[in-house]
Amino acid sequence: MCEYVGVTLLRAMRLPAAAAAVVAAFVIGPMPSAVPQPGPPPGQCPDVEVIFARGTDDTPGLGTPGTAFVDALRRQVTGRSVTAYAVDYPASYDFLAAADGATDATNRVTLMAQQCPSTRIVLGGYSQGAAVMDMLAGVPPLGNKIGSMGSAPPLPGSLHRNIAAVVVFGNPAAKFNNPITGSVFAGRAIDLCKDGDPICSRGRNPFAHNDYVSAGLIQQGANFAAGLV
């Protein structure tokens, strides 16, 4: 699901018309947002919880990269319980609504910190979902063009200790030399961008934005997170 191709971002990418048409061909019709999920039952806190924000128009729930990431992480931490929370936000072409995802993710972290303080939390996101996580880290998703994406308060400092790792894919902030690895989560964050991906780099291959699973970057992100949880 190549995404994040509203008019504002297409201008930022400066793609030629033909390439822009190819990118747009991947994004047809918005999907409904995920249904909010309750906290774990009392006494059933997981060892690890992944809070993942899907990309624009991706499969409802975790999205395709998010599902692959959670599956890969589970394989890396066998013997430990891993739950997944799909950030509840539209993931539509109304990029201002990405702030809703940041608010929901913050609420989930808060809930888990209260109910399951020993659970290791992994934050993750793909493309627009990566921008959601940028907001939690206090990173403007589009450089100084944060107004194009909306904004939300960063994650309160009191919750930083609950975050074991942050893993983002196809992050638009990286295109503006503002990766999440330079944020308050430095040292426990990885910002993965496929070569040629015009969303997170100056590349001009729109197909690269769909290639995170098959290219092995999802596995790389899971390996990174597994080493920190």
Structure description:
It is a single chain. With 229 residues, this protein is an alpha/beta fold. It has a single domain, classed as Rossmann fold, CATH 3.40.50. It is 31% helix and 13% strand. It has seven helices and five strands, in the order ααβαβαβαβαβα. The chain has a five-stranded parallel beta sheet with strand order 2-1-3-4-5, with helices on both faces. Helix 3 packs across helix 7 and helix 4 packs across helix 5. The longest helix has 18 residues. The radius of gyration is 16 Å and the shape is globular.
Q: Estimate the strand proportion.
A: 5-15%
Total beta-strand segments: 5
Mean pLDDT across the residues is 85
Under the CATH scheme, which class?
Alpha Beta
Query: How far from one another are the termini?
Result: 28 Å
| Total domain count | 1
Q: Helix and strand succession?
A: HHEHEHEHEHEH
Percent of residues in helices comes to 25-40%
CATH superfamily: Alpha/Beta hydrolase fold, catalytic domain
The radius of gyration is: 16 Å
Oligomer: single chain
